[in-house]
Structures are given as structure tokens and as C-alpha cells.
Design brief:
The protein is of the alpha+beta class and 141 residues long. The protein has a domain of 70 residues. It is built from one helix and two strands; from the N terminus they run ββα. A two-stranded antiparallel sheet has the order 1-2. Strand 1 and strand 2 form a beta hairpin. The termini are far apart.
């Protein structure tokens, strides 16, 4: 009879899954291949043989491992997306800081230009009034 030996090992990072299913020879006994002496397997009456049961269990295990592998991959993808988003947020935050500084500099320059413009306008008005005053005095004389 064959007795199944199932050994699953996980990689060091907990993400790599390896399945090793082996059959070991055991001493003959009265039970089925799984060592269950209380339930002998009848053949031909619709019940599964020990071999079929083992194959079904093996397939269920493979399916479960594949699902686990898919979930691990999905988790990796999501974590990578989160890391990418965090990097993008940091970049945008740095850009925001740089743009805020540039805006402050531009606003300060705009205020200086407005003051200079008002000063030039005032001086031009003063100069025009003096010229008009000189012209008026010259006409009167």
C-alpha cells in the first residue's frame, strides 16, 4: 500500500510556496491507502478508490496553492502601486514647495514693480506739472 506524504515549505520571505507530494511505501495493513481501517474503499459502487481520493486531495491542494500564489501576486502588485503612489506624492509635495517659493518670489517682485510704477507715475506727474508751470510763466511774461 501507498501512504501519501505531503510536505509544503515556504520560502524565507514567506512568499514563495513549494509543494512536494511523495508516496511512501508502508507495510501492508487491512485499511485503505490512507491508513483508515474503519472505512475500507469499495470499488464499483460509486465510491472513490484510495488512489482517486489521493488524486482529488492532491488537486485540491494544488488549487489552494495556486489561489494563494495568485493572492500573493495581487498583494505584491498592490504594494508596488502603493509604493509608486507614495513616491509620486513625495515628488508632488517637493514640486508644490518649489512652486510655492517661486510664487512668493514672483508676488514680491510684482509688489516691487507696482511700487516702482507708482513712484514713476508720481514723478512723471510732478515733472509735467513743473513743465506746465514753466510754460505758463513763460506765456505770461
Amino acid at each position: 500500500m501507498h501512504r501519501p506524504k505531503i510536505a509544503c515549505t515556504f520560502g524565507g520571505n514567506g512568499l514563495v510556496l513549494h509543494m512536494d507530494i511523495r508516496r511512501q511505501e508502508t507495510a501492508a495493513h487491512d485499511g485503505n491507502a490512507f491508513g483508515d481501517r474503519s472505512r475500507p474503499v469499495a470499488r464499483g459502487d460509486g465510491a472513490m478508490s484510495a488512489e482517486e481520493g489521493f488524486e482529488a486531495a492532491q488537486q485540491r491542494l494544488r488549487t489552494a496553492i495556486q489561489r494563494l500564489d495568485d493572492l500573493v501576486e495581487l498583494r505584491r502588485e498592490r504594494e508596488a502601486a502603493v509604493r509608486d503612489a507614495e513616491v509620486e506624492i513625495q515628488r508632488m509635495t517637493a514640486d508644490r514647495g518649489r512652486l510655492a517659493k517661486e510664487l512668493d518670489t514672483a508676488l514680491a517682485r510684482g509688489e516691487r514693480l507696482d511700487r516702482a510704477n507708482r513712484d514713476v507715475s508720481r514723478r512723471l506727474v510732478d515733472a509735467m506739472e513743473r513743465v506746465r508751470s514753466v510754460l505758463d510763466r513763460h506765456k505770461s511774461a
